[in-house]
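Entry 14. Ran structure prediction on the chain below.
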Amino acid sequence: MISDKLFALVLVVLILSGCGVNKEAEVKNIAPKPSTSTVVSPEITEDTSKVTVEDTGKTNVQDSNTLDQFIKEIQPPNEQLQKMLREDLDLDGKPEYVLAFGLEKGVIDNIFVVRKDAGYHIIGKLEDPVMVAHLNTDMKIMKLDQTEQKFIVVYSTSEVNEAEGFSIFALNHNQINNLNYSYPEATGQGSRKLEDINKDGVFEDVSYYRFQDIQQHTIITYQKFDSTGPEKTKVLYENGNKKFVYPTVPKDIIQNYLEDRYLMNRFLIHLPEMAEFTALSASSKNHFEDIIDFSAMDYTGLDLNIKEIANEANQRVFLVKSSSEEEESNQGLLFTLEKQSGKWKIMSIEMNDKL
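Output, structure tokens:
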């Protein structure tokens, strides 16, 4: 009777003891889950006021060197992130980040190129090559020829939008180089554009010079984007007819003739219309620059004082000088025009140096 009770007691103890061992083994076999974290990489959008991030799950949570934190560390005082671009600029298989900061929206003051190796670090800063007052308003990464090379292009304007230009940068061997910049620094007016003007897959540095002359000329000069190769020129007529129109008034013929001489000398181009203005056997060799001030051509247009001093039948004589000259002075150019076949022609041009 006692032995039966003893056997039952031992059996209960064994059962309870076995359950405890199994539970302990089960707890020890539960391995801890590895920690996960977020890599902050940008999703590029045109709205530069919003930079979203995506979770790639590749960085330890203890790594505080995420991109958004790095941006805050390098952010210049009082400036905001205006635009961020992600691209493999040097074709080494690792993407770079181009970060543009500015004091106000739409204006870029500082641009950094950043790469992630062990952590994020600055490869370099884009040094602005434009020497006159201007605003950097946009930034793009572009392919400019038929290779896979990618370039950083920064666009610039003047504060009153009278000028526009650009700068081109390339990343090579961890060095940022300014490949070319084009901006109307001399006059503060005009357009310098990056265009594939020939539609051949290679971009050109294109300069537009618009003049307020009789024919409303626009002279276009262009060269390969890296300033190599020959410079070429095109001439446009922005008047209502989009082509040369022969003036009907003698004073306009004189004005047109002097304007065209300036354009030919400045751009080293030939304007066939010049031959229509004159019946002279050869172009005048006079240095008109000694008498006429052509400096206003780049701004408001050539300002001339053209005074008729003789009128006989089909022939007229005009004294021509710059409007800035004293009214009493007779120093200037004497143009003699004659009407032939319904058109006024320049018959002679002489220097009149009598005061």
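The CA atoms of residues 57 and 283 lie 77 Å apart. Will compare against last week's run tomorrow.
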